[in-house]
Specification:
By secondary structure, the chain is of the alpha/beta class. The protein has a single domain, classed as HUPs (Rossmann fold, 3-Layer(aba) Sandwich), CATH 3.40.50. It has seven helices and five strands; from the N terminus they run ααβαβαβαβαβα. Strands 3-2-1-4-5 form a five-stranded parallel β-sheet, sandwiched between helices. Helix 3 links the parallel strand 1 and strand 2. It is elongated. It starts with a helix and ends in a 5-residue tail after the last helix. The model has no long low-confidence stretch (mean pLDDT 92).
């Protein structure tokens, strides 16, 4: 019994050290940016603040893709409105407003992408969510090419507390291996 408790304490200690290391290196571990690419569609994932829609507008105006799909239950209409108010023509914005998770973003958006004949898709989310989002879409729609062009909102470590992203980063450090274990979504 005492030996089991020691083993458990060592495992717990190592897990805390690993989590601390991951938190210190969160930017490198969580961010996936494919660099400048052209696609058929930009998919903006729900969540975040206004930075995701803002990033999608930048990419659209740069000519990265001619169409945008907004995916996510809670802020679908708000993101669409933000895109349109920022100059994106209303007729190039589609919505998928049922997804409540990153996994559902991929599952529910993939059929829309297939129906539209999309082959190259640019994902827009916040930097700390970009690796898992990209892995999810690649896992659930392996017949398409996916690229990540995240918003870099509060990506400097000094901004994490001030911009209130620290809890999201900690959650993401748990969700990344969780999606690997639960759904087989490999982040690397």
């Amino acid at each position: 019994m005492q030996r089991s408790l020691r083993v458990l304490a060592v495992v717990f200690g190592l897990a805390l050290i690993g989590l601390g290391f991951a938190y210190q290196n969160a930017t490198a571990l969580l961010t996936k940016d494919s660099g400048p690419v052209k696609g058929d569609v930009i998919v903006v994932l729900g969540g975040g603040w206004s930075e995701r829609a803002g990033r999608a507008v930048e990419l659209f105006q740069e000519g990265a893709a001619p169409r945008i799909i907004v995916s996510g239950e809670d802020d679908c209409e708000a993101k669409r409105l933000s895109l349109v108010q920022s100059g994106v023509p209303q007729d190039v914005v589609e919505m998928e407003c049922k997804a409540r998770s990153t996994r559902e973003n991929a599952l529910f958006t993939a059929p829309m992408l297939r129906k539209a004949g999309a082959h190259r898709v640019i994902l827009v989310t916040t930097w700390y969510h970009s690796r898992r989002a990209l892995a999810c879409f690649r896992h659930y729609a392996p017949d398409m090419e996916f690229y990540s062009r995240p918003s870099l909102y509060a990506s400097k470590r000094t901004d994490w507390k001030h911009k209130a992203v620290a809890p999201f980063i900690r959650n993401e450090l748990v969700k990344l291996p969780g999606y690997w274990l639960c759904y087989g979504v490999k982040p690397w």
